UniProtKB/TrEMBL annotation:
This is Solute carrier family 2, facilitated glucose transporter member 5. It comes from Ictalurus punctatus. InterPro entries: GLUT, MFS_dom, MFS_sugar_transport-like, MFS_trans_sf, Sugar/inositol_transpt, Sugar_transporter_CS. Its main location: membrane. Keywords: Cell membrane, Membrane, Sugar transport, Transmembrane, Transmembrane helix, Transport. It is found in: Cell membrane, Sarcolemma; Cell membrane. The lineage of its organism: Eukaryota, Metazoa, Chordata, Craniata, Vertebrata. Pfam families: Sugar_tr. It comes from the Eukaryota.
Length: 505
């Protein structure tokens, strides 16, 4: 039994490649499209102006700002609609099937955006950004779900962070391509926008050779044989009965529940604090200011007094730090735990936002303040990369069981992308209105999220899904009794309405 316990943590070649291909084919695109329009912003805005003038229309500065804000923010708006599609797709097509289907929302807009200049239409870019946003909305929820269900529990945190690592690699890749001598110029930006389809093509070709989630096949499809075969391939040995028993136990505990819809998720008492937790974590993650930095990095560094020719290299350097810290997070999450990394991350972000505000306000009187501003942005990125960026999706996978996980990811994804959309749309106006003090809003949000995590979120590393459910039972005022291979959830003082709050999606 001791040897079997050691073998549980084995990272097989099949599991490693399934992780890399799904993360590169889907998560990479999320990050790439976050940053792809930052560096060529001026050239693209000039294209918008030229197209409008060719149509005998006058573009005022305020209208151009609105069009550009729409171009930026329509991407997370598409992400919101993609999140709404998560539960129906993963329940009917499976996790892997949804990722394959999702490539439509990458390849089609890649072609559209790539030919936008030739066709002389900025509207195509906006529509393409919306469609590729749908792709990101699906992938940001489905990839962590898929990998979380493939991974053994002692590797679940590390593998769950890999999608976030590839998001940061995507951001860095877009920043490198955005250097003016490469593609961040008047001739290269359509190519930059079109390159997002390449990872989708690779995933479309290779992912079919990898297994579907064994949990999906056993618990939702009742396919015991294929679930066992997939698990044997993923673990690298034949004896998988211990893990199959764990999944059957979860299946038995959820048989009465069925698949929870999003509406019923909000009414089900035993999931109340789990639901509140994913809402607070995703709001905190996105409203903390991270995407203001990625969407508008050049304008932020320009405000900080960085020389125009140096901005692109500072931006790339920031992206490189982001990737490095995400790699660090992969290796420390199982040792440090989820909660500690979240607390450290949000704490660092809060302090960095406050100091950045001070640095921006004093930069005219002190010539060395631009360096402090750059340091604050880098420190902020470090803090966000080790906790707020990667951990919420890991925790969402862990604190919900099979019947409620798809609906939970829909809620988490919707909050994530609506918050992202709000920052992308509002920040240019916020920056003009509040100037140097706009980052104080982000600091207060980081502080509020820090306090919530400190008080509410339990540590989940190394626990089974059923064990994690028991961690929340006391706060939800429910009792989870586990006897042998049977598991029943008894809700204290449950009303008749709550007893009927379970439905098939």
């Amino acid at each position: 039994m001791e040897n079997l316990g050691e073998r549980k943590g084995k990272l097989t070649l099949l599991l490693a490649f399934a992780t890399l291909i799904s993360a590169f084919g889907s998560s990479f695109q999320y990050g790439y499209n976050v940053a792809v329009i930052n560096s060529p912003a001026r050239d693209m805005q000039m294209f918008y102006t030229n197209v409008s003038e060719s149509r005998n229309s006058t573009v005022t500065e305020s209208l151009l700002t609105l069009l550009w804000s729409l171009t930026v923010s329509v991407y997370p708006l598409g992400g919101f609609f993609g999140s709404l599609m998560v539960a129906p797709l993963v329940n009917n097509l499976g996790r892997k099937g949804t990722l394959l289907f999702n490539n439509i929302f990458s390849i089609v807009p890649a072609i559209m955006m790539g030919v936008s200049e030739v066709l002389g239409s900025f509207e195509i870019i906006i529509v393409g950004r919306f469609l590729v946003g749908i792709c990101a909305g699906l992938s940001s929820n489905v990839v962590p779900m898929y990998l979380g269900e493939l991974a053994p529990r002692n590797l679940r945190g590390a593998i769950g962070i890999v999608p976030q690592l590839f998001i940061t690699v995507g951001i860095l890749t877009a920043q490198v391509f955005g250097i003016r001598n490469i593609l961040g110029n008047a001739e290269g930006w359509p190519i930059m926008l079109g390159l997002t389809g390449i990872p989708a093509l690779i995933e479309l070709l290779l992912l079919p050779f990898f297994p579907e989630s064994p949990r999906y096949m056993l618990i939702q499809r009742g396919d015991d044989n294929n679930a066992r075969t997939a698990l044997q391939r993923l673990r690298g040995w034949k004896d998988v009965e211990e893990e199959m028993t764990e999944m059957r136990l979860e299946e038995q505990s959820e048989r009465a529940e069925g698949q929870l819809s999003v509406f019923k998720l909000f009414t089900f008492r035993s999931l109340r604090w789990q639901l509140l937790s994913i809402i607070f974590m995703n709001m905190g993650q996105q409203l903390s200011g991270v995407n203001a930095i990625y969407y508008y990095a050049d304008s932020i560094f320009s405000s900080a007094g960085v020389k125009e020719n140096d901005i692109q290299y500072v931006t790339v350097g920031t992206g490189a730090v982001n990737v490095f810290m995400s790699i660090v997070a992969v290796f420390i999450v199982e040792a440090a735990g989820r909660k500690l990394l979240l607390l450290i991350g949000f704490g660092i972000c809060c302090v960095a936002c406050v100091v950045l505000t001070v640095a921006l306000s004093l930069q005219e009187s002190l010539h060395w303040m631009p360096y402090v501003s750059i340091a604050c942005v880098i420190i902020y990125v470090i803090g966000h990369a080790i906790g707020p960026s990667p951990i919420p999706t890991v925790i969402t996978t862990e604190i919900f069981r099979q019947s409620s996980r798809p609906a939970a990811f829909m809620v988490a994804g919707s909050v994530h992308w609506l918050s992202n959309f709000t920052v992308g749309l509002v920040f240019p106006f916020l920056e003009k209105g509040l100037g140097d003090y706009s980052f104080l809003i982000f600091a207060s949000i980081c502080l509020a999220t820090f306090i919530y995590i400190w008080v509410v979120i339990p540590e989940t590393k190394g626990s089974t899904f059923l064990e994690i459910s028991k961690l929340f039972a006391k706060r939800n005022k429910v009792e989870i009794a586990m006897e042998g291979e049977d598991c029943n959830m008894q809700e204290a003082a449950m009303t008749s309405f709550e007893k009927n709050a379970i439905t098939t999606f």
